[in-house]
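Subject: for your reference before the review

Hello V.,

The reviewers asked for a structural picture of the protein, and I figured it would be easier to keep everything in one thread rather than splitting it across files. Below is the amino acid sequence we used in the manuscript, unchanged from the supplementary table.
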Amino acid sequence: MSSIAQKKGFGATLWDYLTTVDHKKIAILYLITGGLFFVIGGIEAMVIRIQLAQPDSDFVSAGLFNQMITMHGTTMIFLAAMPLLLGFMNAVMPLQIGARDVAFPFLNSLGFWLFFFGGIFLNLSWFMGGAPDAGWTSYASLALASPGHGIDFYTLGLLISGFGTLIGGINFLVTIINMRAPGMTYMRMPLFTWTTFVASALILFAFPPLTVGMVFMMVDRMFDGNFFDHTMGGNTIIWEHLFWIFGHPEVYILILPAFGIFSEIFATFSRKRLFGYSAMVFATVLIGFLGFMVWAHHMFTVGLGPTANAIFSVATMAIAVPTGVKIFNWLLTIWGGSIKFTVAMIYAVAFIPTFTAGGVTGIMLASAPLDYQLHDSYFVVAHFHYVIVGGVVLGLLAGLHYYWPLMFNTMLSEALGKWTFWLFFIGFHLTFFIQHFLGLLGMPRRVFTFGANQGWDLYNLISSIGAIGMALGVAVLVVNIIRTIVKNEKVGRDPWGDGRTLEWAVPQPVPFYNFKQTPLVRGLDTFWIEKQEGNKEGMTYAEPVGDIHMPNNSFIPVVISFGLFVAAFGALYNGEQPWAVPVLILGLVITFGAMIVRSLKDDHGYHVHKEDLMDEKGGKH
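And here is what came back from the structure prediction:
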């Protein structure tokens, strides 16, 4: 990135990124923004752990603590984990299937900017009267009673951001269905592409229920709609159904792409084809299918009755089967392999026992009678973080080291990477393993302090010390990233030497059109096949060199998203400020005006002439 800025000048580079529709640059935007929100969410987590490090602490007030736990969960799920994974999907998937871009480049840009402005809007709540304080799940009985505008920031911010994610999911689905290179059948797609495909399908079906719930909550709070107010004929529990019909598939939306990243890493650094490819594909699809049949296990204590509880309990236990299939296939991929312990591989190996521990506690919680005892205790907090941090975040950190050379043509320091790993990994287990015992000792989640005589002092102190270790690990990672950008040492194509899939066959730096000729896929692990046959180009081509049609850049996605950002402020202060309705109208005019401009202006893209295509060394043909 620094070299680009030096060549073009900062202003030109900034404009380039503001208007880009190139999936590779949008991936970088997702990674930068998601990374910043990850740091913000981490700071909120540190405040939580400092507050709970000792009994009877007054580091923060009860009200501020509620805002911290709400914003920590909301930020980490919606504004950090999701966009970081969307960044990897953008960077890798089109290259893996031999495409020149995603199906709808304009919508790809719009999806990012909607997420960006939604996230900024949500975080402005800190400076405008207080953040949301009803927990990241924002249960209606708490949310409707919450004073101030915190919950309004939550609903409006996540509505804007959620539209961006939904657009991204649809875009990836269409891309994978329609834009695979010749010869790439579904059963030749790399595992990361498969997990992107299933996760995108989950986004398509899971985000609409969340959107409906958010709209109901917004109407309840701003216009006295009474959807969730039981005193006016509403039903509080409907929010829980709508939220968890989204919320449990969301766990798989996050974990499946991480599974895909690990699958690629295990195959690459074991120097073996992934064991049981077909079983892995079917397990991925089955996880996606069963993911929509387990949501009420979050609601065992609501009173749905023994029949419903039994059905969801069995379904929850059943979803462990395809996950177990994956675990054994990864182990058998490593078995007998010629293993190279890079930082990415260390993360991948460490992930297996960590995620398995999270899965085992999930099976425990699937038992409704036990869940009655452990519900809303720190045992559930520990389980959740073993799945999300021990699965998704380890996957993100592994993917960052593995795919960094593909995205930036440089290599993160392996030595600093190992420091990050050990600090983060040991800190993680210190933080969350001990929380299982806190839960068994009866400590409820979301309490802002506790008494000195309850037997929770030492465990909470150990947990907080572990959190410092995780924070130090992330700090070392930031140093590693800055050092790598400053050194700017180029590494070239296939830097690991063992790349198996098409993304490693592309020349470095990756041309904006990805492939000068559409590749012909001749089997699973197509780049590996070409290397074994001595093909120095790494690809067999399906077409001769010709002109390439590419989309134009556009500033309109920023304008559309900014209009909704402005309109949200008008909706927020409706009935309180005289300027609210004009601001709401202004924002909608900006958004719909930009959409009309887009629809009236023919934008057919442009042709890159074959004489202008780059050769392997970056020169023109």
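For the response letter, the relevant points are probably these. DSSP finds 20 helices and four strands in the chain. Confidence is low (pLDDT under 50) at residues 1-6.

Happy to draft the paragraph if you're swamped.

O.
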